[in-house]
Amino acid sequence: MKNRTFEAHSGVIAREGIPFIVIFLFFTASSFMLGSIASGVVFSLITVFIVWFFRNPRRNTPDYEKLVISPADGKVLRIEELSEAEFMKGPCKKVGIFMNVFNVHVNRVPYSGRVERIQYRKGKFVSANLDKASTDNERNIVKIKGDDGNELLVVQIAGLIARRIVCWITEGTYVKKGDRFGMIRFGSCVELYLPDDCIISVKIGDKVVAGETPIGCLK
Q: Would residue 127 show up in a list of annotated catalytic residues for this protein?
């Protein structure tokens, strides 16, 4: 049986975008009906942008078990080796992916397993491409334990414009690689914390696609 949570978020437009689309369609129609062509054109363009921003395309996820797949569309902003990190055991590696307003903003599960922990933290809204955004900004931490025992974190980080982190899954949920699990509105960053022995397959500056691009391979 398919998980209803994932079915509910499998449409071509993310559900979070529907209210915005309805509102601006109303403004568009009203402007044209009142004879304000200029306003109607402006609202039409805004509506098209919102539909495009909340697009939720299908993705072809590689099925090799040990591959960690990108949780976000965007550009690899940083790759770091850490001696420790919260909720991770021992040294680990961090991969940060920056999403601008033109990227798809639906986030996807990077590795199949059980959601062990979800922790939301309030914070600031500095630009998501700054180093301090990792610790200072509003963020949502999702810890996944794979069937093979590997543990990793996916951290959704709000940015200067992004003020709304959405997470559709709950603790205890079994998730599959490539499943849609949430989104961040209007530009932001997603970070992956991986076991230290993970072989990273991307480099800084690479463009990645959520649900498709391999980030690394676990042992």
A: no
